[in-house]
Amino acid sequence: MSLADIKNGIAEACAESGRNPADITLLAVTKTRTPEMIMPLLNAGHRTFAENRVQEAEEKYPALRTQYPDLQLHFIGHLQSNKAREAVALFDCIHTIDRASIADAVANEMIKQNRRLPCFIQVNTGEEPQKGGVAPKDLDALMDACRAAQLDIRGLMCIPPEEDVASLHFLLLNKLAAAHQLPFLSMGMSADFKAAIRCGSTHLRVGSALFG
Ligand SMILES: *Cc1c(COP(=O)(O)O)cnc(C)c1O
């Protein structure tokens, strides 16, 4: 699919669910994609991107940013404390706060670097042991820890189990975000972004559908 196709899909799903496309951010997930593959999107006016590895992003994005200073880069991968410094320096938003120790590490770096990034908490809605994210039952405690660290939590993020109906996870995430009065929901990928929009997503993370 092209960028235009995805945008049409977003517009359709918004029309079906009475939502405004302006309330939805399409993050182009560029992991494993080369700068040559990313450039056409930038040339088409797209500015919001996401990567799941700090080092890979460091190799690609500083050069792209000198050409397009207004590009926004979101972090959507598992974050280790020893990468917090680089992550805070490079990214504009972090979607994967999932434990108190990483909340503290990121908050400390933000103070040191005098950079305040909005963040999301990743919730392991399917409670899969191999996946990152806080268990739904532990979300309250993590929210408290983030508040104590003065982290700016704006929303929740999830990656549904592949074998499940994604909408069930999207609706659970929506309910959890509403309970905590969080305005943003990072959910929906290539296969299910329309369903995610119907369930209230504000940040779509789309990779393979854009790059083939
Ligand atoms: C790779 C990735 C995506 C994009 O998935 P596609 O199915 O290629 O659209 C979304 N979110 C995360 C966290 C990813 O790692």
Descriptive labels:
212 residues, alpha/beta, eight-stranded parallel sheet, 16% strand, binds pyridoxal-5'-phosphate
Q: Main β-sheet, in a few words?
A: 8 strands, parallel
The fraction of residues assigned to DSSP E strands is: 15-25%
SSE arrangement, N to C: HEHEHEHEHEHEHEHEH
Radius of gyration: 16 Å
Name the poorly predicted regions. none
Described by the principal axes of the CA atoms, the overall outline is globular
Helix content: 40-55%
DSSP, total strands = 8
How many helical elements? 9
Strand order of the largest sheet: 7-6-5-4-3-2-1-8
Mean pLDDT rating: 97
Task: Describe the protein.
Helix 7 links the parallel strand 6 (153-157) and strand 7. The protein has helices spanning 3-17, 35-43, 54-67, 84-90, 100-113, 139-148, 166-179, 193-198, 208-211; strands at 25-29, 48-51, 72-75, 93-97, 119-122, 153-157, 184-186, 203-206. It is built from 9 helices and 8 strands. The chain has an 8-stranded parallel beta sheet with strand order 7-6-5-4-3-2-1-8. By secondary structure, it is of the alpha/beta class. The mean pLDDT is 97. Bound molecules: pyridoxal-5'-phosphate. Residues 29, 31, 52, 76, 159, 189-191, 205-209 line the site of pyridoxal-5'-phosphate (PLP).
Briefly, what is this?
The chain is α/β, with parallel strands linked by helices and 212 residues long.
Please specify the SSE layout and strand pairing:
Layout: H1 3-17, E1 25-29, H2 35-43, E2 48-51, H3 54-67, E3 72-75, H4 84-90, E4 93-97, H5 100-113, E5 119-122, H6 139-148, E6 153-157, H7 166-179, E7 184-186, H8 193-198, E8 203-206, H9 208-211
Parallel strand pairs: 1-2, 1-8, 2-3, 3-4, 4-5, 5-6, 6-7
Helix pairs in contact: 4-5
The chain binds pyridoxal-5'-phosphate.
